[in-house]
Amino acid sequence: MPGLAMDELNANSAAEEPSGSYTPHKENFAQQASPRSTLSPRSIQSDSIDLAIDGVVDTSIEQLYHNVCEMRSSDHSPSRASFYSYDGESRIDSELGHLVGDIVDLEITKEVVTENKEDFNANANGTTHEKDVVSSANGVHHMRKHRRSLGLKGIEERIAAGLDNPDLGPFLLKQTRDMISSGENPRKALDLALRALKSFEICANGKPSLEMVMCLHVLATIYCNLGQYNEAIPILERSIEIPVLEDGQDHALAKFAGCMQLGDTYAMMGQIENSLLFYTAGLEIQGQVLGETDPRFGETCRYVAEAHVQALQFDEAEKLCQMALDIHRGNGAPASIEEAADRRLMGLICDSKGDYEAALEHYVLASMAMAANDHEADVAAVDCSIGDAYLALARYDEAVFSYQKALTVFKSTKGENHPTVASVYVRLADLYNKIGKFKESKSYCENALRIFGKIKPGIPSEEIASGLIDVAAIYQSMNDLEKGLKLLKKALKIYGNAPGQQSTVAGIEAQMGVMYYMLGNYSDSYNIFKSAIAKFRASGEKKSALFGIALNQMGLACVQCYAINEAADLFEEARAILEKEYGPYHPDTLGVYSNLAGTYDAMGRVDDAIEMLEYVVVMREEKLGTANPDVDDEKRRLEELLKEAGRARNRKSRRSLETLLDTNSQLMKNNGIKVL
User: Is 545 helix (H, G, I), strand (E, B) or coil?
Assistant: First the structure.
């Protein structure tokens, strides 16, 4: 994440993950909230290559911890210096190492005693295992032969007595970070971090301690690495309560770091609203301390803008991305790599909002900046985005040229069997499908699937799953629903029950529900929609437009299963969400109104149905014109309702409902569910 660094950031340092990319949880949270529907197979996972730029300021959590370690301490004692400088070991480090060695030996001794007890319980004579235990005990004795022999109780007392040593906490924290960096057993790192925290708590004596804050950050990271996100949350919440903003930049840094890491953790859990809440809080703190023209604040603006893109909140994303762009243009050299990163994201935002001309302009400027900075692979990635914009504008020849150009670079730099190459094949397949060249489209789909079927070590499985989802969407648009379902089931199996992936899984299930509906398997469609809706609710998606569309489509499945009351409830909930997210005049919102009118008619609520359908007709006339076929259909339906209302109602509501909703089932077929 972007750091609130006390020192100047090294803008020339290469980073594993780019500024603005969703580093800590990109492979999770990037696919959960794609701004694209997979019916146009360019999901955010495909676009993620567009946002990964080498050479921009490092925004990883590790860089943030480095920034925290650079905090100046008012205590310039040798022991403090040894904590901040890891090049050598001080005398106190050696003494603390002696104490920590006793801790490790205590653990080994306890293991030996436990093993001894278990072995003797399991074996009556105990001869063989006793020999092994004695050998292990001798090994422990040999490790400690230079120390005074202590009993278990004596070592524990010594450890407890040493916790009030102000140098023990920093030393243990350094050992913890070294273990994390070396990839050692995280359980051992967790134990050291907990001991360090205990020491910090004793030494702080109730006063704000920034070292304890950093320890809490490290402890939370270990819990996240272990997949124990629920353990990390209260740790991080505690970390942001300790710093006092009035006490200076160091405290602001600590609070900023806690907010951003808490946002990352919620994002990994799939809790988008909570994630954005803490990202926004962190951004405000950084802006207050550094000022809103500082390049580091610009980096954070882009970072949070990406989070809003992934949450489908494009207006807020555009605002933040424009702030980042203005800051970097004002502070950097012309055509800087930071500005290029901003423009790539802005291009994606404009593309997602349907402003393809503006998207194309941003992509071209980003490509020029990257070429000027010798970022060949990044230029190829932007070429894919340029091709997407050309495709949306129906400039097919130019789109093919851009895709083929990117394909050539990716094959030479990444290899012919890399998933990035497959992602370009998917784009080409989509293009040829759109222009009716189905043979070429299927050929590119097969090429992509061949690569996705050869999973290599180091390739994230989620990237393969995303590719399968994209190809499934193409097969769906070609009406090869069985093939599409097969691919979605494979993707679903890859994601499984991984933490933070429930929203993604819900999106896949919802798309499967669409396909089952199109196949006429309404019972299967209803059941899998029910599962998807439950996951959406659990993952915090219950207020998004995506969730509203899913509710509408589940309502259609309910209609076909004659669950009329349940359908009405779903349509009403979908209406409330889409009115808020899209407004009452959006085509999707009007489609839900129309479905709800048919449902009300089926329930005998004719007056409500007429009132709603009259509104739909007026809106469609204003938007589409009186001669549009969709307007004619709505008028015909309204006339039927008015005619029925003028005479006694008969019991044909279910049949009426099926007739009334027949046309609107196209909402499902045409729009589909945006699989994340």
Answer: helix
Ordered by where they begin, the domains of the chain are: 56-75+164-290 (1.25.40.10), 417-495 (1.25.40.10)
- Give me the residue label for tokens 């503006």: 358
Q: Alpha helix locations (H) across 124-166?
A: 127-143, 152-162
Closest CA to 265 of 252, 279, 251: 279
- CB of 83 closer than 8 Å to CB of 176: no
At 31 the three-state DSSP class reads helix
**Cα 297 to Cα 622: distance, rounded to the nearest angstrom:** 44
Tokens read off for 22: 């969703």
- CB contact at 8 A, 324 and 302: yes
Residue 414 to residue 424: CA distance in whole angstroms: 13
Q: If you count DSSP H runs as helices and E runs as strands, how many of each does the chain have, helices first? A: 32, 0
Q: Would you call 552 helix, strand, or coil by DSSP?
A: helix
pLDDT digits (tens, 9 = 90+) for 19-60: 333 333 333 322 333 222 222 223 333 333 334 444 443 434
Angle, alpha carbons 153-154-156 (nearest 5°) = 65
Token pair for residue 484?
């599409």
What is the CB neighbour count within 10 angstroms for residue 182? 8
Q: CA-based angle 180:184:187, to the nearest 5?
A: 85
Q: Which residue has the tokens 């998807």?
A: 532
Q: How far is CA 360 from CA 15, 19, 325, 389, 548, in A?
A: 27, 22, 16, 6, 30
Exposure letters 473-488 (e unless 16+ CB within 10 A, then b): bbbbbbebbebbbebb
At 598 the pLDDT is: 85
- Those residues whose C-beta lies under 8 Å from the C-beta of residue 81, and which sit 6 or more positions away, are 90
> Which residue, 655, 556, 663, 670, is CA-closest to 616?
663
User: Measuring CA to CA, which residue among 447, 374, 388 is closest to residue 416?
Assistant: 447
Tokens representing residue 47 in the block:
């676009």
Report the alpha-carbon distance of residue 100 to residue 166 in Å, rounded.
Answer: 14
- Residue 549 CA to residue 454 CA, distance in Å, equals 35
Sign of the dihedral through C-alpha 460, 464, 470, 476: negative
Return the axis-axis angle of helices 419-434 and 376-392, rounded to nearest 10°.
20
Give me the helices (H) in 144-206, please: 152-162, 168-182, 186-204
Q: Contact, 350 vs 325, CB < 8 A?
A: no
Q: How far apart are the C-alpha atoms of 437 and 416, rounded to whole Å?
A: 24
Burial of residue 56 (CB within 10 Å: 0-12, 13-18, 19+) is: buried
Per-residue burial over 199-219, b if 16 or more Cβ lie within 10 Å, else e, is: bbeebbeeeebbbbbbbbbbb
3-state secondary structure of 562: coil
pLDDT one-digit tens code per residue, 311-359 = 888 999 999 999 999 999 888 677 788 999 999 999 999 999 999 999 9
Closest CA to 158 of 92, 98, 211: 98
Separation of alpha carbons 308 and 320, rounded Å:
9
d(CA 405, CA 296) in angstroms, rounded, equals: 34
H or E segment at 482?
A: helix 481-495
Dihedral, CA atoms, 214, 220, 225, 230, nearest 10 degrees?
A: -170
Residue 590 reports pLDDT greater than 80: yes
